[in-house]
Amino acid sequence: MEYEPVIGLETHVQLKSKSKMWCGCPNQYGSDPNTNVCPVCLGMPGSLPVPNEEALKQTALAGMLLNCDIPARAKFDRKNYFYPDAAKDYQITQFELPSNIGGHVDFEFEGKIASVKLNRAHLEEDVGKSFHFDKFSGVDFNRAGVPLLEIVTEACITSPDMAYAYLNALKDILIHGGVSDCDMEKGMVRCDVNISVRPVGDTKLGGKIEIKNMNTFSGARKALEHEIERQTEVVSNGGTIKQATWRWDDVAEITEEMRSKEDAHDYRYFPCPDLMPLEPTEEFRAEVRSRMVELPLDRKQRFITEYRLPEGDAETFKNDLPLGEYFEGIARESKNPKAVANWVLNNLRAKLTESATALDDLKFEPANLQQLVDLVDSGKISSKIAQDTFLEMFESGNTPQAIVEKKGWIQESNTDALGTWCDEAIAANPGPADDFRSGKKAAINRIMGHVMKLSKGKANPGAVVKMLEEKLSP
Fold first, then answer.
1. Which of these, 459, 306, 322, lies nearest to 379 by C-alpha position?
2. What is the pLDDT of the chain when averaged over all its residues?
């Protein structure tokens, strides 16, 4: 019997606010342990939370970017559990009435556009972080209280590769939207994986395994690949999968059981008595809408259609937002946006990296890059001269026109001058001339090289070829 996987993901993303969710402590990575703390994030008796307005706006913005519905009413609940890294012995989260409902993420997968449906994207707070040493353990509560968005998919993902593509698309959207930096090395994104297998064609879900706290997308994909194989082997041999929580051992590349799991958690949710329900006003929604940005996939498709770019160029500009904006600032008024893209991607990007220069620190104006394209397209300078002109422009900031005039690099297109050089080159190369007349078209290259030598590189190559063909034709 053939089996298929059914996958759902819960992705936890730290929001980009300057302070924590309920207090004024800095939302800052890398501080000394337990220095960004106060009675509120430590859960001291009598301390009261105050919602971070910016985090509420970022939550709503994330919902809009993810095509969610923003309900008229949301509320916070207490989720009660007892772990060393939860100073309050509960977590403020959203259970019955989340800030974002439904939604979907569209992304490229296997040559077409795939879509993953979302169940919700609710706002909660992060917890502290445990550290284990040789003889003792410690907890750093700097992370406790950091605003955390939990994005929950439906059980609609059909393969580890699809899960990996979705996670990367989600990350791109949140970074482009300014909602989160999504730095996985700093723990800003973590993922819980839910996986079951069932016979192909069956609609009933099998026993679900949850793999907790995946901190890399590649790790999540590997864990899914391993767990699908393991579960398939179990059920193929007549066994059953019991719902449980497992962990991924990234070194051994295996999953291991952590604890068995009942059908429902006993978190004893109840409305947080210290926080009023959220009822976003139209003014609030309008302000959040004003911060909307173009989604990465939409941006890529528009660049392909509007500027006639190949997929690879559009993909690069999708991923590098500043470079894409720089290109588009020039391309909007360009008759040859593909040539502009070539200069930005092949020349400018390389020089920026080589010289450790930021786009904002460029010495030349963006319009100068278009001027360089125009000089090449008009035949006033050759492609080789254009390369030298670009380097001079990058270093000095002078316009391409001023550079080529000063250097005497403008190509000669005057027919009288070209005619004289062509006649001399033909006379000096009678053998190649006869070869061309007898049908050996490549022979013209030697004569053309002689013309370029006579003109000291100033002759327009296109005009030279045309004139030589005319003079050598019967």
1. 459
2. 93
Reading the block at residue 370, the tokens are 């278009």
Q: Quickly list DSSP for 72-90.
A: S-B--EEEE---TT-TTSE
Spatial contact of 461 and 444, defined as CB atoms under 8 Å apart: no
For residues 64 and 116, give the distance between their C-alpha atoms in angstroms, rounded to a whole number: 15
Structure tokens at 321: 């937002």
Domains detected in the chain: 3-288 (no CATH), 296-407 (no CATH), 415-472 (1.10.10.410)
Decide if pLDDT at 210 tops 90: yes
Q: Is residue 286 within 8 Å of residue 301, measured between CB atoms?
A: no
Is the pLDDT confidence value at 161 over 80?
yes
Contact indicator for 313, 343 with CB cutoff of 8 Å: no
> How far is the CA of 45 from the CAs of 51, 91, 94, 434, in angstroms?
18, 15, 22, 100
Find out whether 414 and 458 touch, Cβ atoms under 8 Å.
Answer: no
342: which 2 tokens? 């070539």
> Cβ(152)–Cβ(102) under 8 Å?
no
Name every residue whose Cβ is closer than 8 Å to that of residue 138 and which is 6 or more positions away in sequence: 33, 130, 131
**Long-range interactions of 352-358: CB distance < 8 A, separation 24+:** 355/394
State the SS3 of 107-157.
EEECCEEEEEEEEEEEEEECCCEEEECCCCEEEEHHHCCCEEEEEEECCCE
pLDDT above 90 coverage of the chain, percent = 76
pTM for this prediction:
0.85
Residues in the chain: 474
- Say whether pLDDT at 262 is over 90: no
Pair type for strands 254-260 and 112-125? unpaired
Distance CA 342, CA 300 (A): 16
- Per-residue model confidence as pLDDT tens digits over 299-352: 999 999 999 999 999 999 999 999 999 999 999 999 999 999 999 999 999 999
| pLDDT of 103 over the 80 cut | yes
Q: Is the pLDDT of residue 412 over 90?
A: no
